[in-house]
Prior knowledge:
- There is one protein chain.
- The chain is 74% helix and 0% strand.
- By secondary structure, the chain is mainly alpha-helical.
- It is elongated, with a radius of gyration of 18 Å.
Amino acid sequence: ARCTFKQADELMAGGRFAEAAAVYARVDAPALREHAAFLRADALAREGKSDESVQEFRLLLDGGGAFAVKAGLRLAAAETAVGRTENAITVYNRLLGVREMLLTADEETTGTAAEQQKKSKIPQFSLTPSERIDTLYGRGRAFYRVYRFDEAEKDFSAVAELQPARMGEMRFLKALCRY
Length: 179
């Protein structure tokens, strides 16, 4: 498996993304399978195969494994890049644990929270502070793109609180939301 990874990494470094994606797909070591799937999705995205990369990133997100959060962030970015901003917002909400939007009306009105979580089968994510900042920033930008300025402003404020060094940038983005 290490030789396969090395071969694929060399192809990536050489800009041969389609070939690298094919090599990553051949990794069969259980311990490396998810990492290889993430790198395959990345290679497909770099090759310009948006729909295929979106599908691969979505599978990783849905799997809830070690690369789920990274895949979710890449998925949201890919959805935004192809003009599916509402899909990106849904992904960001999912990463942030905004479950209400993902439950059916039935699940919202019946059962305990634990039952609802079990029924919905949506993995919950533990975000690092950096991932949380990236997710809030990305969602804020997505909200801005679809003219949901109040929500965008809230996310930019949250980023400024979590990362004071970006206060100036967030003030600027919040000002854009107001005018």
